[in-house]
Amino acid sequence: MPTVRHGRTYYTQGPNDKRGIGGVCSVIFIVMLLIVPPIILIASERSRFTRFIALSDALDSEIVELNHHHHHHHHHHHQQQQQQHGYDDGDSNKELLRSALTTPGTLVHGISTHIETISTDSEMSVSIPGALTLRRNAEYCQWHELQSQRCQTCTRTVKASDGSTKEESYQCNCVTEYNYVKSWTSRRIPSFGFDQPGAHHNPQRDPMPSKIFVDEDARLTFREGEGGDGDYDNNNEINQQQQHDNKKRGIQANLDPKMLSNGVRSQPYRLVEFVPNGRAPPPSFFSRIFSFLNLPNRNTRYEPLQLLKDTPYSPAATRDNFVYVGQGGYFFSPHESATSSKLFNYFAQYLEGSLFDWQMGDLMPSCTAGDVRFRYEVQDPTVVSVLGMLRKQDDERLKITPRTMHGIGDANAATIGLVHAGHSGARAMILAEDSDSKNRAHMVRGLLFLWSIPASRLAGVALERELSESSFATQVEGVFGLFLALLGAVWLLVWGETFGAMETTLVFFTGAVFGYLALKSAVRKGAGRRWHGVWCRVAKWANAPPEWRVEDSYVPAPPTGNKLGEGDDGARSKML
Description:
single chain, alpha+beta, 8-stranded mixed beta sheet, 12 helices
């Protein structure tokens, strides 16, 4: 139950400008917002390029199937591929495996329905059988400060250094209100910056941070006839008989924990609850009434409470008093503050005048700031498809490990070690990973497009144009111009001439054309030093006072015959 408390209310007469250290920080913040997105874009496109190269290489290479078929129920294409790669269906498994082990970098693909795994969080002494990954999600009881501000809009006349003036509107006579809410949150909130840190103190303890555990040696069995693209005929009786025989044989291999560094694709995490005898509780009255709505089922996994028999002696229990409380699968640890820190906190409350500020919210039962709780989620698929490299361990057991291509960029993106839930052919797995990587790149491109809106205005200022006062069409041209030109330039830098040079060049030139059109039709800005103009605009966005950003002039520069609309030579010599 969240607790709500009202904080203080301030009324500030006059302009709401940021001065002093606040103003400096505000300017730095705006500058960072302008610089960081292009850097993120370059990193993202590099990573996309590396991933593309690694996946293309995997798609073109020979992939050894661990569930080697004897029956001929393939797609024609698959059969062709196999003959092309120089092995026939009749070949023994041993040959294939030998080639996969002796040729370095050979990829193997397999589908396993027999997964022996157990994931353990040793700090809490909890082990979940059948889980390839176990995720501990920590939550902290913390105060949040909510600041709301209502201002009036006033106008003032600002003066340039050459004496020309301009009206500008600004925020004034602001009322700032502070409220505090205490609730469970997934991160810790530092309270020293609060308006009343004494009454809303957030202890920063983090005894059991969120973490993902994977089984160090999960064992998979690849049986014949389970693999392929799932395109064999299940109703065929002979086939079923054969599958039954094949149950006895099969290749066993351990799964390198690095294969699970990104979890199991397309396998949602399931919440783990510990209940008596592991029996799922009956559905609640509420969910029975609303059963006709088909609400999404919180696919919870119920485990017997007996699994927790060692938790009272675990490090987390003895050190931080963690105990299983249920209520959605939570382990809970109360915050106990030392007497000295309590006294210090009372002193802080006395200083800020909140010591005797009792409110209704304080009577509400809720967590104590500093309490910590966590619960577990697992990925426990019944079928997995894996794509990686085969190695022999020291104890002669086989191990499937990721394969990294060196020298093409970021090692993470250059690594092929895929674990997907369900029956997936090697090709389908590679294409799925490619589409994931594309979607990530698109998200960053979308972020860059939003960045192009303020950045194009700033670029306009640098070229003595005022985009914000120009027509909507011109503003759109400016935004698209900057966005496409930058994207094209980054693509040229990252992908070079080898891949899609045509599209890259087209994107770049389209951007250049849009930019030029915007430049031609935009409203002219006051003449003066260009860099100074850029600084004044950034300072204005950062809400700095007018004396920090005195423009050179508000009189527009006369248009000259020069094509790019450069200022006259006088302005240029001033700039140099």
